[in-house]
């Protein structure tokens, strides 16, 4: 019943999202204000939703992919205790709710509420199995690193409010003339810092691979439909600000491309099936930021959509494999699974072809649209981007060959239990596989079919002002087609090489050396952060705890208490119960008082008055 209710609510949300999409397509967008969320003399911030072309696309992605992941979860998590099963679905529903709030908000404050909501839910779901300290550490790492980015987002909101007195999107974007170039640059940079946290870009990307600690459906939801796309959405929504900030755009393009390449190199030598997919997400997010940085906002949103299809497919396919392997995630102990899991094998292969950018699969169209825009901006961006795409093809088909081809390398017990997953798991895989094939056809470039770029036309009202300002010169059509053919040929060659290299993979106990060891250890970035950030902070925290708090503050407070206790213990000795002692103290007190009064002349004055 929990699974039915949890999945049913998302299905209803998906149906409503379809109706909203149709309404926006026919009638355009609208803003609905419910009440004043913050109401003071100088400004008012309404609790308002904005449903337009951009938000309606994200609504379909979030609820559609979210529903399939919920259905998948009913089978994947069925061994959990009833109370944990219910807790899981409550977190999952809250996750989707927070992401919907984020994309529906008509101002930066409502967006920020949803922004914080997905951060909370990621913490709860990554650390779902909270009895494992490593999972708790991964959840805490995600939470803390996102708070760093969130501070940048919050400062940007304050800056906008201080300059314009409003945070409503329509008001902010119509008053950009009131902002100086310095204001726009700082606001966009601070917003981008927020995006680097949520969407895992350099230097705040290391939390996302560790987020694999949560259940596999959670990984799919985080990577495909919710949290990591938040930064892309926020920048796409703020497109007019970024178009007016060329310096920030250049920073975004460089950081995005650097992240894409760095993550791709790490994925080349990972052996955990979920870690490979995690670093592929970081890399693909880098391409989305590259698109944003060169002003190709539609291409980035397009890649968000296609990536949601094939990345959800790949993670859920990996979950199917892990389910069949009894929890094993090391690809070196797999192999030959296509004999036992035909549906998972076929759908996973489609996902690999899609993410590698092989035509006519979804990833080909969205990836090449970003690369074409990068080519128009700078050939160097294009060439480096293609290098990243080639690495993507290699590590994905290395994963595929090690997992599904060759001979099985696991234990006899694992082999005995190998079987195809139940229908609640395979049904979402089939649907996502179909979307991974046809999902890119909604925005076929003009170089293939004239006037077939439906997504670009649909999103045109959202990016109209930015398009008017950019006046970018598109790449020459004939050259664009030539570049596509060359890059596709290279990708196919890399795929062939990867399959040939790993289809007969034999597990070896030899340790990696040289650059392979560096890549296997993720360029030692985590170790670097641990050395320059975590350990010094822990040492400083230990100093505050042991020296300042325990010896200082606690020492003073406890010292006062000990002094009072000691004094009271000594004073109570006066109450001995001996009458002779009491008379002695009384006489001594009289003598002391007499001496005091005598010293002050009181006794002499007393006798002078009497006599």
In this structure, how is the largest beta sheet organized? 2 strands, antiparallel
Termini separation (Å)?
105 Å
| Rg | 32 Å
Secondary-structure element string: HEEHHHHHHHHHHHHHHHHHHHHHHHH
In DSSP terms (H or I, runs of 4 or more residues), the helix count works out at 25
Quaternary structure: single chain
Give a count of the beta strands, DSSP E runs of length 2 or more. Answer: 2
Outline type: globular
Average pLDDT number: 90
Share of helical residues: over 70%
Low-confidence segments: none
- Strand % is under 5%
Structural class, by secondary structure, is mainly alpha
Q: Strand order within the widest sheet?
A: 1-2
Structural description of this entry:
- With 611 residues, the chain is mainly alpha-helical.
- The chain contains 25 helices and two strands.
- It has a two-stranded antiparallel sheet with strand order 1-2.
- The longest helix is centred in the C-terminal third of the chain and has 47 residues, at 525-571.
- It is globular, with a radius of gyration of 32 Å.
């Amino acid at each position: 019943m929990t699974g039915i209710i949890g999945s049913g609510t998302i299905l209803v949300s998906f149906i409503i999202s379809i109706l909203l999409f149709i309404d926006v397509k026919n009638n355009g967008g609208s803003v609905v204000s419910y009440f004043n969320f913050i109401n003071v003399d100088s400004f008012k911030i309404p609790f308002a939703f904005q449903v337009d072309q951009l938000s309606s696309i994200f609504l379909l992605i979030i609820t559609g992919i979210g529903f399939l992941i919920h259905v998948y979860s009913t089978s994947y998590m069925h061994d959990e205790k009833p109370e944990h099963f219910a807790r899981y679905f409550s977190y999952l529903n809250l996750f989707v709710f927070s992401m919907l709030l984020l994309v529906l908000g008509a101002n930066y404050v409502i967006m920020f509420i949803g922004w914080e909501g997905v951060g909370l839910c990621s913490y709860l779901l990554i650390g779902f199995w909270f009895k494992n300290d490593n999972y708790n550490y991964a959840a805490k790492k995600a939470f803390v690193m996102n708070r760093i980015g969130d501070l940048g987002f919050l400062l940007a909101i304050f800056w906008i409010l201080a300059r314009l007195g409003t945070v409503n999107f329509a008001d902010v974007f119509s008053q950009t003339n009131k902002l100086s170039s310095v204001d726009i640059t700082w606001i966009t940079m601070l917003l981008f810092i927020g995006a680097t946290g949520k969407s895992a870009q350099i230097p705040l990307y290391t939390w996302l691979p560790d987020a694999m600690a949560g259940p596999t459906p959670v990984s799919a939801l985080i990577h495909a439909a919710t949290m990591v796309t938040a930064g892309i959405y926020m920048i796409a929504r703020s497109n007019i600000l970024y178009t007016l900030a060329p310096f920030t755009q250049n920073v975004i393009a460089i950081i995005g491309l650097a992240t894409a390449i760095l993550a791709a190199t790490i994925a080349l030598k990972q052996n955990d099936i979920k870690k490979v997919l995690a670093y592929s997400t970081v890399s693909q997010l880098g391409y989305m930021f590259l698109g944003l940085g060169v002003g190709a906002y539609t291409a980035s949103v397009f890649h968000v959509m296609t990536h949601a299809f094939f990345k959800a497919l790949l993670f859920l396919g990996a979950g199917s494999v892990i389910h069949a392997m009894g929890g094993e995630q090391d690809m070196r102990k797999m192999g030959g699974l296509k004999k036992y899991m035909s549906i998972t094998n076929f759908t996973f292969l489609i996902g690999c072809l899609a993410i590698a950018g092989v035509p006519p699969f979804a990833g080909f169209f969205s990836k090449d649209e970003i690369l074409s825009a990068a080519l128009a901006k700078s050939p160097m961006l294009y060439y480096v981007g293609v290098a990243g795409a080639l690495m993507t093809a290699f590590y994905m088909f290395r994963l595929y060959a090690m997992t599904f081809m060759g001979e099985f390398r696991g234990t006899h017990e694992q082999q005995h239990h190998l079987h195809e997953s139940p229908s609640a798991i395979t049904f979402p895989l089939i649907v996502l596989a179909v979307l991974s094939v046809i999902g890119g056809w909604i925005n076929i470039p003009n170089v293939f079919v004239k006037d077939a770029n439906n997504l670009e036309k649909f999103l045109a009202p959202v990016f109209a002002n930015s398009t008017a300002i950019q006046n970018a010169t598109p790449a020459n059509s004939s050259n664009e087609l030539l570049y596509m053919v060359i890059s596709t040929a290279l990708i196919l060659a890399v795929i062939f090489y990867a399959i040939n290299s790993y289809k007969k993979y034999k597990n070896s106990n030899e340790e990696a050396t040289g650059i392979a060891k560096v890549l296997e250890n993720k360029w030692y970035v985590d170790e670097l952060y641990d050395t320059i950030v975590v350990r010094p902070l822990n040492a400083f925290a230990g100093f505050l705890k042991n020296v300042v708090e325990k010896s200082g503050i606690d020492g003073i407070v406890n010292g006062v208490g000990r002094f009072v206790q000691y004094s009271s213990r000594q004073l109570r000795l006066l109450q001995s119960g001996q009458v002779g002692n009491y008379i002695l103290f009384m006489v001594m007190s009289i003598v002391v008082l007499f001496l005091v009064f005598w010293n002050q002349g009181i006794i002499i004055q007393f006798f002078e008055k009497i006599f």
